[in-house]
Amino acid sequence: MDFLDATRRSYDATADDYAEWIRDELAAKPFDRAVLGVFAELVRGPVADVGCGTGRITAHLAGLGVDVSGVDLSPRMLAAARRTYPHLSFAEASMTALPIEDGALGGVVAWYSTIHVPGTHLPAALAEFHRVLRPGGLLQLAFQSGTGTEHRTRAGRHDVELTFHHRTSEKMADLLRDSGFTVRAQLVRAPDTDGPYPEETPQAYLLACAHD
């Protein structure tokens, strides 16, 4: 799939710089930590952090006592994750074809990783999340809330080909219901405009439960 190849190449190109830039981001985002804390308290069983990148969310969940491993498309992002968190497990794969057995997981986290998936492919990705979750398993999403798409050809000092697909919380909730999930919680917050990680759009969080 072209979007997978472009996303992989772009994150491979930026991996080392991105790892350094994003390292302390979670410490500056209290809403993010709160959402992950609720997920960690509710989830039962192993968790996959899908689109884990440099592994920072994987490591945060592990620190909260979650049995978690990471999955990502980018080999160089995964190399950074393994260097930084050698005690954790990371695998290379696409969210559209996870190397996980049916019903094996208690939880899936997709933290700003569905944002590069075109609308025509998103139902298949959500179906894959549903496949690997046991009945009652939890899916935690985070994404920029909005409409339309944004294409970037530069990230810092690197040439990239990244498309960001903005979706409203309501749109994503409808897609989750169509994919066999029950939405348990929705939160949309205003963008952080100050500090080292300023945002331009509202940020959305959805917690959903898989059912048969």
Write the layout of secondary structure elements.
Elements: H1 2-22, H2 30-42, E1 47-50, H3 56-63, E2 68-72, H4 75-84, E3 90-92, E4 105-111, H5 122-132, E5 133-144, E6 149-155, E7 158-165, H6 169-178, E8 181-189, E9 203-210
Parallel strand pairs: 1-2, 1-4, 2-3, 4-5
Antiparallel strand pairs: 5-9, 6-7, 8-9
* Count of alpha/pi helices: 6
Give, in spatial order, the strands making up the sheet with the most strands: 3-2-1-4-5-9-8
What does the radius of gyration come to?
Answer: 16 Å
N→C terminal distance:
29 Å
- The structural class is alpha/beta
Q: State the helicity in percent bands.
A: 25-40%
- Residue-averaged pLDDT, rounded? 94
Which sequence of SSEs, written as H and E, runs from N to C?
HHEHEHEEHEEEHEE
Which blocks of ≥5 consecutive residues have pLDDT under 50? none
Largest sheet: 7 strands, mixed
Shape: globular
Total number of beta strands: 9
Beta-strand percent range: 25-35%
Question: How would you describe this structure to a colleague?
Answer:
The protein is an alpha/beta fold. It has six helices and nine strands, in the order H-H-E-H-E-H-E-E-H-E-E-E-H-E-E. A seven-stranded mixed beta sheet has the order 3-2-1-4-5-9-8, sandwiched between helices. It has a two-stranded antiparallel sheet with strand order 6-7. The mean pLDDT is 94.
Quick description:
The chain has helices spanning 2-22, 30-42, 56-63, 75-84, 122-132, 169-178; strands spanning 47-50, 68-72, 90-92, 105-111, 133-144, 149-155, 158-165, 181-189, 203-210. With 212 residues, the protein is an alpha/beta fold.
